[in-house]
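Subgroup meeting minutes
Present: P.N., E.W., G.H.
Scribe: E.W.

1. P.N. recapped why we're keeping a running log of single-chain structure predictions: easier to compare across weeks, and new members can see raw inputs and outputs side by side.
2. G.H. added today's entry (263 aa).
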Amino acid sequence: MGQRGALRLSLEPRGGRTVLAGRYSGAPFGAVRANYPDDSGIPEVQITNPSGGILGGDLLEIDVALVPGAAATILTQAANKAYRGVEARQNAAFRLGEGAFLEYLPHHLIPFARSAYRQETEVRLAGDSTLLIWDAFSAGRVARGERFAFDGLYSRTRIFRDGSPEVVDGFELLTGGEPFGGYSYLGAAYALAPRDLDPLVEELHEALSRMPRALASASASAPGLCAVRILARDATTLYRALNTCRTAARDHLRLPPAARGVW
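Output recorded in log:
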């Protein structure tokens, strides 16, 4: 049997910045704190897992709430690893109040040979809240020649605005084959905001289409939504593409530049 870990965070504006108003973490999640890398008042909150990865049978639950007007960037410490064993699961839920802003920018997941991993992420937005979220996966421990040697890999992302679905996306992969078309990393990013994002889509489509060692593009499938798909040859290219999305989205949304990139 694996561990049953829970992480619960609540964030609220206070004194010109957003603070962690409530926090709880149970193993394998580590302690959580808010760091302020610049004077924007937007904290970086890093999710840690001192155990070094996700073990077979683990069930991880993440619940994050941003009250109206709160703004935060949530990161992970490094690429996560799913170790061999029975299916492990992670369920993450985010709730954004009116006028809230969230960046959820986890590092990619590396599924080891004979691992089984299932991930579900749900975000519920208020009418005028703003979201930038991404997710990414490798084909396995590619440097060791482990490509698609996992038993199962499942991911589902659902994003709602005022209760109506804006994004329902994901995949389910079994061992073997070459579903990434020879690339080693798969990424997806979404920007949602109560404004026209067509200029952002055009900018990203142009920038990503010129990026070497990547096959990537952006599209606008609904008003106020920019969706990006990325296939990358290596991790450096993957994060170059993801950070390009983040930089462009922040600029378009008139947010201050990020204090640092995610690598």
